[in-house]
TrEMBL record:
<dbReference type="InterPro" id="IPR001851">
    <property type="entry name" value="ABC_transp_permease"/>
</dbReference>
<feature type="transmembrane region" description="Helical">
    <location>
        <begin position="215"/>
        <end position="237"/>
    </location>
</feature>
<feature type="transmembrane region" description="Helical">
    <location>
        <begin position="163"/>
        <end position="184"/>
    </location>
</feature>
<dbReference type="GO" id="GO:0022857">
    <property type="term" value="F:transmembrane transporter activity"/>
</dbReference>
<protein>
    <submittedName>
        <fullName>ABC transporter permease</fullName>
    </submittedName>
</protein>
<feature type="transmembrane region" description="Helical">
    <location>
        <begin position="132"/>
        <end position="151"/>
    </location>
</feature>
<feature type="transmembrane region" description="Helical">
    <location>
        <begin position="95"/>
        <end position="120"/>
    </location>
</feature>
<keyword id="KW-1133">Transmembrane helix</keyword>
<feature type="transmembrane region" description="Helical">
    <location>
        <begin position="298"/>
        <end position="314"/>
    </location>
</feature>
<dbReference type="GO" id="GO:0005886">
    <property type="term" value="C:plasma membrane"/>
</dbReference>
<keyword id="KW-0472">Membrane</keyword>
<keyword id="KW-0812">Transmembrane</keyword>
<feature type="transmembrane region" description="Helical">
    <location>
        <begin position="47"/>
        <end position="65"/>
    </location>
</feature>
<feature type="transmembrane region" description="Helical">
    <location>
        <begin position="269"/>
        <end position="286"/>
    </location>
</feature>
<dbReference type="Pfam" id="PF02653">
    <property type="entry name" value="BPD_transp_2"/>
</dbReference>
<feature type="transmembrane region" description="Helical">
    <location>
        <begin position="20"/>
        <end position="41"/>
    </location>
</feature>
<keyword id="KW-1003">Cell membrane</keyword>
């Protein structure tokens, strides 16, 4: 109820709503004073460039979690899309075809996830856990378990190239985030995603085609994984079935850290992207300051737990 929310201390409400931005600022300021190597254009652009694929996946994954679902298959979709692109490039020499195939394959695999969840009425956690195993096996079959090296001319331009002094993956990230941000916050489809995650039964009664929304959010998640795969495989000029291992958990962690509710109905694309780069800054700080790398996961985990606890307190006090 609005009245009960108003009773919640305003400073804590602001801390809850903008916790990820506050932490970003705090970490940035600390690292800027701790090391002169941190706050440089080269270092900051490298952080953006290296984490662009994960940020793209997290931005699209926000739709899935806001809709009240989970996608545990993004790393496997990423693997299939990347090895398929590498195989096509090495077999045909057609760079444009190979890199364009990755998003298309990701879209198709994501759509399969959505159809399985809706048609078979299986919980998305279990459905995408199963599909991740299937897709991982498919990536191994495509490569025969071996590394596919690409030597086709121009294949690395997408992943390593620059435009106006900025890496191309950063431009792709900016375009994808802007588009997804608008799609979630400024369109009817976005409102339907929130409605589905808030209360699927009520949304359906009010005319929202819930199953179609679910299919579309999983399709979008797969498409994003394919775009990320195209960038990553172009950057390293090779495809391997283990590519992206653990990426799905990193993306979910960033989304939750950003303030998107695991219960659905609450979230924003910018929050998830901020979550990705908060984790990236922590990792970068450990490298620059030469801290014990074994403590990095501990610090990241504590921050995520704190963010989830803050969100839970805000939800129970409303």
């Amino acid at each position: 109820m609005p009245g009960r929310r108003a009773a919640f201390p305003r400073p804590l409400l602001l801390a809850k709503d903008y916790a990820v931005l506050i932490l970003l600022v705090v970490v940035t300021v600390y690292l800027s004073f701790a090391s002169s190597a941190f706050f440089t254009s080269d270092n900051l652009l490298n952080i953006l460039n290296q984490n662009a694929p994960l940020a793209i996946i997290a931005a699209a994954g926000t739709f899935v979690i806001v809709s009240g679902n989970f996608d545990l298959s993004t790393a496997s979709v990423f693997a299939v899309a990347s090895v398929s692109a590498a195989w096509l490039a090495s077999e045909t020499g057609d760079v444009a075809l190979a890199l364009a195939a990755a998003p298309v394959i990701g879209l198709a695999l994501g759509a399969v996830n959505g159809l399985v969840v809706t048609a078979l009425r299986i919980h998305s956690f279990l459905a995408t856990l199963a599909s991740s195993l299937v897709y991982s096996a498919l990536a191994v079959l495509i490569t025969g378990g071996a590394l596919i090296t690409v030597t086709a001319e121009g294949f690395t331009e997408l992943g390593r190239g620059e435009f106006l002094g900025v890496f191309i993956p950063v431009w792709v990230l900016a375009g994808v985030v802007a588009l997804l941000w608008f799609l979630l916050s400024g369109t009817v489809f976005g409102r339907h995603v929130f409605a589905t995650g808030g209360n699927a039964e009520a949304a359906e009664l009010s005319g929202v085609r819930v199953n179609r929304v679910k299919i579309l959010v999983f399709t979008l998640s797969g498409l994003a994984a394919g775009v990320a795969a195209a960038i990553a495989v172009s950057r390293i000029a090779s495809g391997q079935p283990q590519a992206g291992a653990g990426m799905e958990l990193q993306a979910i962690a960033a989304i939750i850290l950003g303030g998107t509710s695991i219960h659905g109905g609450v979230g924003a694309v910018w929050r998830s992207v901020a979550g990705v780069f908060l984790i990236a800054l922590i990792g970068n700080g450990f490298d620059i300051l030469d801290f014990n790398p074994q403590l990095k996961d501990l610090v990241t985990g504590v921050i995520i737990l704190a963010a989830v606890a803050l969100a839970a307190v805000g939800r129970t006090r409303r």
